[in-house]
Write a sequence for this structure.
DNA sequence: TCTCTATATGTAGACAGTCTAGTTATCGGG
DNA sequence: CCCGATAACTAGACTGTCTACATATAGAGA
């Protein structure tokens, strides 16, 4: 996987794994890794800034918790985050359709 | 379409429209616009640097021509470019599958 | 006990590709 | 004569991702 192919789509993935249940950062990382079949091992230097960005945007809400002597910041999808996720999904569908249309060999549509 | 959703996938699109026939920059722009159903109007500030990058990489070969008093630089896909295109197509398939897997609502695979 | 791994969060700075906005130039139509 | 389409190109801004680093706890195993 090219390193920056995700550019512009990472937010969607994070919102998607937070849809089912609130997770803390490290768990988000693992959830994405699992649901991508191991293909995506996103570095913490990508994840944490993205989470803060999403929080600033009001799409997730973070809360500190102590669990077994370790501090965790658990993020929960907000209403605005749900709407953003729906928009991201629609956007992805459009984007994928466009790329596949151009990438498809042979026919050039009228 | 988010402005930088293409990030990392533009090269693939350019190589794809050059697969059928050699085109000059402006024609590449139009070909992508047409084959994307009008969704992608990529600015020349994105296109021309990308073409030069692809030429430096040896994936396309450019040649100056004069047509009706206007100079054109026509780009042709090289053998290496064909291989790169095949690789980009495979990469896109993988990428799309991964994103869709994570984005898909409901089930979290084991 | 000591060490190593996994857990857990975060920052600083590099990097690179895309975009904005601009330049130059020819041709054809109104 | 001017304007829009064609045609190519650059400088610099922008921004999101990555590399590498820093910190700290818990638990397993030697």
């Amino acid at each position: 996987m090219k390193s920056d192919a995700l550019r512009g789509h990472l937010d969607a993935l994070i919102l998607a794994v937070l849809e089912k249940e609130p997770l803390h950062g490290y768990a988000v990382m693992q959830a994405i890794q699992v649901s991508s079949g191991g293909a995506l091992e996103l570095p913490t230097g990508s994840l944490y800034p993205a989470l803060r960005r999403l929080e600033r945007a009001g799409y997730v809400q973070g809360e500190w918790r102590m669990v077994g002597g370790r501090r965790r910041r658990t993020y929960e999808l907000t209403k605005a985050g749900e709407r953003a996720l729906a928009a991201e999904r629609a956007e992805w569908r459009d984007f994928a359709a466009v790329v596949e249309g151009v990438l498809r060999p042979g026919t050039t549509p009228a």
Observations:
- Residues 4, 7, 24-27, 44-45, 48-49, 52, 67-68, 70-73 of chain B lie near DNA strand D (CB under 10 Å from a C1').
- Chain B has four helices and three strands.
- The mean pLDDT of chain B is 93.
- The radius of gyration of chain B is 16 Å.
